[in-house]
Amino acid sequence: MTELIKSVVIGTAGHIDHGKTALVRALTGVDTDRLPEEKRRGITIDLGFASLDTVAPNGSPLRISFIDVPGHKLFIRNMLAGAGGIDAVLLVISAEEGVKPQTEEHLAICNLLGVRRGLIAVTKIDAVSAEHLAETCSGIRTFLSGSCLDESHASILPVSARTGEGLDTLRRELLALAMSTEARNPDHVPRLPVDRAFVMKGFGTVVTGTLLSGEFRAGESLLLEPGSIDVRVRGMQTHGHAEERASAGSRVALNLAGVELSEVNRGQTLVAQGTLQTSTMVDVEVTLLSNAPTLKHRSRVHFHAFTTDTLATVSLYGYQPVEPGSGRLMRLKLQKPMVLVAGDRFVLRQSSPAATIGGGRVLDAQPLPNLRKGKCLTLLEALRDASLEEQLFLRISRSGTAGLTIHQLTTETGLTRKAILRISESLVNNGRLLLASEGRLLTRESLAEACENITKRVQAGGLKRSELKNQTALNTEVFDFLLKKLAWEGKLRLHGETIYSSESNSQPVTQANDMLFAIASIYEAAGLVAPSSSEVAAKLGLEETEMRKLMTLLLRERILVKMGMQELYIHQKAINKLRDEMRAMHGQTIDVARFKQITGLSRKYAIPLLEYLDRERITRKDGDRRLVI
Known about the structure:
The protein has 20 helices and 32 strands. It is α+β, with helices and mostly antiparallel strands and 629 residues long. The protein folds into 5 domains: 6-180, P-loop containing nucleotide triphosphate hydrolases (Rossmann fold), CATH 3.40.50; 191-272, Elongation Factor Tu (Ef-tu), domain 3 (Beta Barrel); 278-374, Translation factors (Elongation Factor Tu (Ef-tu), domain 3); 386-509, Arc Repressor Mutant, subunit A (Orthogonal Bundle), CATH 1.10.10; 512-628, Winged helix-like DNA-binding domain superfamily/Winged helix DNA-binding domain (Arc Repressor Mutant, subunit A).
């Protein structure tokens, strides 16, 4: 497997004609002004892209990708499309003119988008005297006071793209900046906002963008949102280099199958299948700039996030206007759907006069539409400063007795299934959350509420399962899970389709019943990739002798099935599912490699399971292969 190149994306910023494009060209040899109109007018109108391939101090390959943005006030929309996915900023200020209006607006945008690292290149130094340069640099330092670049102690570097003076120093500083930039969070699912789409002769539709998180691989299927268009990655390049895979932070060009150019535009987002969804309503934390006008309830603003923008209507919690320089929690109703997750940064602009007025971060990208405003506000105030672990708990708690599936949590947070299970593990272990069947999480309080609802309704007499489910209004997964739990605890008696209150309902639940249910739940959730009994015992704090007795009971009741002589136990539901899958392959032959591919298992689990299937006469071994009978 080829080594993944560390990639850092740096965006230029600054006033028109301060030399951003000339500086990128001097650093990379690439002229990012690609449009005929840009050549004719001598200004950058749309986004331009270039890269500087170098070597890190440890000898590993490093790619610094540049996004060159327009500096003219009329093209701020295009500038924002490039600024959303950058790791750091290269603020370009002309030594001749110093700080100008778009310098100020671009830096304000970087602040609002959470860009905290960068460099300042003072260009055109060959056109001014030493005294004038010193005066300009002093003015720049004053201008930066209190900004994100001041806080990160960004270097001010005098350069000339025409003579080359200062470029070596700038390259060294860029390398140091790239090396000190933190890798993007590996816990988030793949997502790429599209910033260009075009047709390449002989290949078809091509889109480009910055991979915000996760990895893309050549050949995989993705989803283009909004639109829910299934596409396949025919081929992939990063700055002209063909790649089999690309990691977060890479500038990527994707040749897509399954979509026409007319169906693709800047602002759409490529996501992994079955992960993220669009939204037209988001709860956010907003800060207004000090020179912004007062923002009132039901105001209309332009909402910019990554490569997309739309009109949005402001709904203020509390209704009081937001004053300049202050912050507020609010709901934004978007005119068109967008792919957003909690933590995403955005910018707000007004139409007339056109100006940036503020920005902030998304707190909830999938708010519940019918939740009362008071509860929404309480939740947002808690989410604002909560740890990731606590954020997950708050989201699950909000959903009450319905709980949330891992998939739903991924949609809300952008976190991978693996990350969600890791982050929530301590909450499950200490009992604040319960992992129900099929990966649905509920809080302890919601579980108790649902259990009480069920037991109260059957106290007066038996109820049909379907009638009880309708009365409790629980979803099927939670309802079935709780019936099994309450039966385990001796609080209900199940007779066919009728559920009765148990005579022992008033008796305290025994510790043995609790532990039997806990063990069975762990194995059911694990499926075929089951832990060892010693691992489960350690997790539940059980002694070896006690664990052995409980496992014997579970085996006797055929809730668990032992695989041969090994310490490998599988839940009966997982075995039944595997049986059904294998029977669907009747008459086919498989070997160990194909069985591993079908089930996604390692050899550690595959061999005992195949031997079990042989014993159960589901398969018959013939040399190195097996016939499904």
